[in-house]
Design a protein that fits this description.
This is DUF3793 domain-containing protein. The protein has one domain (3-181). 55% of the residues lie in helices and 14% in strands. It has 9 helices and 5 strands. The strands form 2 sheets. It has a 3-stranded antiparallel beta sheet with strand order 1-3-2, with helices on both faces. Strands 4-5 form a two-stranded antiparallel sheet. A hairpin with a 3-residue loop joins strand 2 and strand 3 (65-72). The longest helix is centred in the last third of the chain and has 23 residues, at 155-177. It is globular.
């Protein structure tokens, strides 16, 4: 399997809901030994993703792994414009909510300083604010349900989204297995 095909499979499996426009963001961990020529790969897929307003941002880069945030720019901008989200993120030091890249760069700094995942990363992934706050308050315990995130508030809404995300990922992976390119799939999804 070539590097481009491997990257397409990673995107389809981990980021299909973001690529399809139903989720704000997704994380992909890339093993640098298994996925070489990343700059070529990024250049090729950045063009394809921009057509659906989806972008890649490296939130962490270590010797062996690169952690990418795949995000829908419109959805993230919409989230960052909400007063409740801004107040929450301000408590962690975020400032300029009109500048998405400034927020992402600050998230990257927070990841580096914390040597792990700062809890507010859930906002950038599109998790409900009540669930992000619930996770923090409960130290990741006492949740109602666990899926792509731990649910503390609206269980019915979360389960509906979990189902949509799973169906979307299955559809993207099935299309790739049937010989479609990621560009073809994204074009159909938009």
């Amino acid at each position: 399997m070539d590097y481009f095909q491997h990257f397409e499979q990673l995107l389809a499996f981990h980021s299909a809901p973001t690529l399809a426009g139903i989720k704000t963001g997704s994380l992909i961990s890339i093993n640098k030994q298994k996925l070489k020529n990343f700059q070529q790969i990024k250049q090729k897929y950045s063009k394809c993703l921009k057509c659906s307003n989806v972008y890649m941002f490296t939130v962490s880069d270590s010797t062996n792994y690169r952690l990418l945030l795949i995000y829908n720019k419109d959805k993230l901008r919409q989230l960052l414009s909400q007063k409740s989200i801004q107040e929450f993120l301000q408590s962690y030091g975020y400032k300029d909510f009109t500048n998405i890249l400034a927020c992402l760069r600050y998230l990257k700094i927070r990841m580096l300083l914390q040597k792990g995942f700062p809890h507010e990363i859930g906002i950038f992934l599109g998790y409900p604010l009540a669930d992000v706050k619930g996770f923090i308050k409960n130290n990741g315990q006492n949740f109602k349900c666990c899926g792509p995130w731990k649910v503390y508030a609206d269980l019915a809404a979360a389960e509906k989204l979990f189902s949509q995300y799973a169906q979307c990922s299955q559809r993207f992976c099935k299309c790739l297995a049937n010989g479609f390119s990621l560009e073809d799939i994204i074009g159909q999804a938009v």
